[in-house]
Write a structure and sequence with these properties.
It is a single chain. This protein is an alpha+beta fold and about 280 residues long.
Length: about 280
């Protein structure tokens, strides 16, 4: 899904010409405001080939730009199967795609085609049967042999192929820690059924993700560094933006379906996660 894109750079070259004019169409040793077509692959090649022909600052600028346009979500050959009696139903078959930072993407298809299943796997709610998921540069299932594991009701259940051995029904600790951290810092999820906590009011439902503090530095969200007053201001800002200021003390059961959906949207945005999934 990564398309070529155009940027404008201002670069000064010393007393020599670049050896690869396909990247910079220039005829003199000094040029500026050149529009350049990049793809991620040829950008990497250009950085390697021309490293000694550009200043350190130029190279750092390009590396930072490359970081900005990296895929925030990357799926490769993703599969998901569900047991149905003695049969196995494959709900997702070899899905591969990328979503770039700042990009809006939609998954469309008829009912039962696997849209929610894909979103649940990206949101790390459901485990894939095979394939890889990379969230903002982190390979979620790196070092995990998904093909040897069984998943029952979205929970890890592996006996290592030994039917006599008791199955484990919890995630391996390292994987569990990685998934929990990514859910907190990188993912906001808007559920089909909203999944609001009925005993909490609008303000408390939106605030709830901020109360789930973690000592893991990899699971920090930008809001963690806010003061209490700043967090309150941020929550009230979101409530105002979704038009629920007059209902912020109301519980979920006292809201209409549309109002509950807006609470779910604000809750997904409250941690300032880079990935927002809307089912």
């Amino acid at each position: 899904m990564f398309e070529d894109f155009t940027i404008t750079l201002e670069i000064e070259v010393c007393d020599f010409k670049l050896k690869n004019p396909t990247f910079f169409n220039h005829s003199s040793t000094h040029f500026r405001s050149k529009s350049v077509i990049f793809t991620r692959n040829n950008l990497k090649k250009m950085i390697i080939l021309e490293f000694f022909f550009l200043s350190v600052c130029h190279c750092m600028a390009i590396f930072l730009f490359l970081e900005f346009v990296m895929a925030v979500v990357s799926l490769k050959d993703l599969h998901k199967s569900y047991p149905l009696g003695k049969e196995s139903v494959e709900a997702v078959k070899g899905v591969s795609f990328e979503i770039e930072k700042g990009e809006f993407a939609a998954i469309s298809g008829p009912s039962g085609s696997g849209k929610s299943t894909i979103l649940n796997m990206i949101g790390l709610i459901d485990l894939p049967s095979a394939g890889s998921i990379v969230i903002d540069g982190t390979d979620v299932y790196e070092g995990v042999n998904l093909s040897d594991a069984e998943v029952e009701n979205t929970r890890w259940s592996s006996s290592g192929g030994d039917k006599k051995k008791k199955k484990r029904t919890v995630l391996p600790a390292k994987l569990d820690k990685r998934i929990t951290g990514l859910r907190r810092s990188h993912l906001g999820f808007i559920f089909q059924t909203f999944n609001l906590i009925p005993v909490l009011n609008v303000y408390e439902n939106i605030e709830f993700p901020l109360l789930l503090e973690s000592k893991n530095k990899n699971s920090k969200s930008p809001v963690d560094d806010f003061t209490k007053a700043q967090k309150e201001e941020w929550i009230n800002f979101l409530i105002e933006k979704v038009g629920l200021t007059d209902w912020k003390k109301h519980k979920a059961t006292e809201l209409s379906g549309g109002q509950r959906q807006r609470v779910a949207i604000a809750r997904a945005l409250v941690t300032k996660a880079p990935v927002i999934l809307a089912d």
